[in-house]
User: What shape does this take?
Amino acid sequence: MKPAHIREGGGFGVLLALALGLVVLSFAVALATAIGDYRIPLLTVLHAVTNGLGLSTIEIPRIESSIVWDMRLSRALVAALAGAGLALCGAILQALLRNPLAEPFVLGVSAGASTGAVAVIILGIGAGGLSLSMGAFAGAFAAFALVALLSNGATSGPNHTILAGVAASQLFNALTSYIVTTSGSAQQARDVMFWLLGSFGGVRWPDFYLLLVVVTLGLALCLWIARSLDAFTFGDEDAAALGVPVARVRLLLFGLTALMTAAIVSMVGAIGFVGLVVPHVARYVVGPMHLRLLPACAVIGAVFMVLADIVSRVIVPQQTIPIGVVTALVGVPFFAIILYRGRPRT
Assistant: This one.
């Protein structure tokens, strides 16, 4: 089925595309669980998962069961949720700002969340009362506030907002580097800087449960106000004329984006370009209506991140490279293509 048929057809085509995406996602998660320094057959992965869920009692080696259930499966599922969440954030920001380049990484939101998380990790700010996720959320919202201030709110054009995001990103990255290099040991600085480039190495089941709640609630809320997001793509004035409470919905969506970004950054670091690339691919497949676009972004983003995690583990033998490097290798050319297509015609 061609993408044009899905965009122009009814809901059945979209449901079919989403179902196919979920099948691909399931295979990608299984593949991510099987691949590693210790290779595990896919059939063994299936047996380990069904045993862990209490659906079977097939006997497999204990070490393989432990690797699958205790380490790799949680990593793959967190990667899927992180990709889904970042893709949703990108779709939200592109609708609110009416700019195809908008996403948490480009707007400095990820950088702000990283600063907040690092402040908690290294400086101990709020330790005992302020969790890592809340520190990241405070940094993400501070980045949003700075971008709004620099771009003069809604009175400036979308390009001004992107430029303000670049400035905010540089500022918060500089703050993060200052905190890391002046307040921690050399080994701690190396560990934190590697983590900031994106890593799923330390995530486990508690991270999955927290991220599952955050991303699921975020998707549900976005679907509930999907028509408002459609209205925002025509501008604030048109949205207000259609009965959308612009200021309240904008604040709600910015807060939701900050929350999802902060939760992801606090677990796996700042991963860029997922929120930029995936919404454009999803629009090509299912069209611009957000009731279709948002679930498609979640599924495609999940698949993209799981595959990126696999690449990060196999591209260099016996070594794992930061996940942000892989997403940048895809995202930067995509970014350049969008800029080229958006250039003024003479």
Q: What stands out?
A: The two ends are 37 Å apart (CA to CA). The chain has one domain: 3-341. The mean pLDDT is 86.
